[in-house]
Specification:
There is one protein chain. The protein is of the alpha/beta class and 335 residues long. It has a single domain, classed as Rossmann fold, CATH 3.40.50. Helices cover 24% and strands 17% of the residues. Strands 4-3-5-2-6-7-8-9 form an 8-stranded mixed beta sheet, sandwiched between helices. Strand 3 and strand 4 form a beta hairpin. The N terminus is likely disordered.
Length: 335
């Protein structure tokens, strides 16, 4: 059983970033025209009134990612599908309506389609970071605004789940056509989970999925899985000052870092809230991976992973290090 400590939940106790915001369509009083930009997609995103409060999207240069992906608008769901294996999703949230391509829930290692309701809220928050509706004049913007979501609930209302359910969700998501699979969860080494991940990665070939997971919230050098598997991009967290978040795990498996402190996203049941954790960092990277795959639709998973590892600003020790991996996600780099 994966417990609360190892799930890498965003409500990490020493920080307590669970600031519930308005239950209306406007999470913050951000201005709809948050600032001028040199191309139309940024202006389109600027219609979202809380875009100006999303420091993380500025930190990763998300508009550069949209430009690299050649997006002509931010409303068409034509991007590479992203699978989120988590606590489910509130599919009725106004920022997610019509964006869920497939929905399932695993119990006793078997996925049943049609029900992925989120009884915890963690999965809904993660989903908003990755792919909330963008340019709709409501709330926030998502990283991969044109990517449909494939949702598989592996975690229950008590913030825990079994290795068999995580493995079943990975297998199901890959079969549903997910190009990117993101997991904001963690636990001990597991043969079923690793076998499912190896199959989904498929050697990094054209049939493979790029797999992303949170590095962990324990701070020291402890390795959490699935982030610790070689097939998985392990994601650490930074704060708005581009420093390693003090809860973020540091180890040799960290591959990339992304914003994970005080992240504004969706609240199950409606509205918005801020949460912190490597759980919040992983969907930024998953969304970025989808944008990069859109630049080269015929690329293999391994090629997209290399593109991702080059789309960084190198912080810490030169080259790859234990805190930031290859660096902090920056979609203005590596183009």
């Amino acid at each position: 059983m994966l417990n609360r400590r190892t799930l890498l939940l965003a409500a990490f106790a020493p920080f307590g970033f669970l600031s519930f915001l308005s239950n209306t369509s406007h999470a913050d009083p951000g201005k709809a025209n948050y600032r001028s930009q040199p191309f139309g997609l940024a202006r389109e995103a600027g219609r979202d009134p809380s875009r100006a409060s999303q420091w993380a999207l500025d930190a990763i240069s998300v508009e550069s990612g949209w430009l690299r992906a050649g997006l002509s608008n931010l409303s068409a769901l034509s991007g590479p599908p992203i699978a989120l294996i988590d606590s489910g999703v509130d599919a009725s949230h106004q920022e997610l309506r019509g964006r869920i391509r497939a929905c399932g829930s695993s119990r006793s290692g078997r996925v049943t389609e049609g029900d992925c309701r989120d009884e915890d809220g963690h999965g809904t928050h993660v989903a908003g970071i990755a792919a909330a509706a963008t340019g709709n004049g409501i709330g926030i913007s998502g990283v991969a605004a044109t990517s449909p979501l494939i949702i598989c609930r592996a975690l229950g209302s008590h913030n825990s789940g079994t290795a068999n359910d995580v493995a079943a969700c990975v297998t199901w998501a890959a079969r549903k056509g997910a190009k990117v699979i993101s997991m904001s969860l963690g636990g001990p080494d597991s043969r079923p989970v690793h076998a499912a991940i190896r199959a989904a990665w498929a050697g990094g070939g054209t049939a493979g999925s790029l797999i992303v997971a949170s590095a962990g919230n324990d701070g020291p050098s402890q390795i959490s899985y699935p982030a610790g598997y070689s097939e998985v991009v392990s994601v650490a967290a930074i704060d708005r000052d581009r420093h390693r978040a003090r809860f973020s795990d540091t180890n040799g498996d960290v591959e990339i870092a992304a914003p994970g402190v005080d992240i504004l996203s969706l609240k199950a049941g409606g509205g918005y809230l801020r949460m912190s954790g490597t759980s919040m960092a992983a969907p930024h990277v998953a969304g970025a991976a989808a944008l990069l795959w859109a630049t080269a639709p015929r690329a293999t998973a391994a090629v997209v992973r290399r593109l991702l590892d080059r789309s960084v600003s190198d912080l810490g020790s030169k080259g790859r290090d234990r805190s930031y991996g290859f660096g902090v996600l920056d979609l203005s780099k590596g183009g």
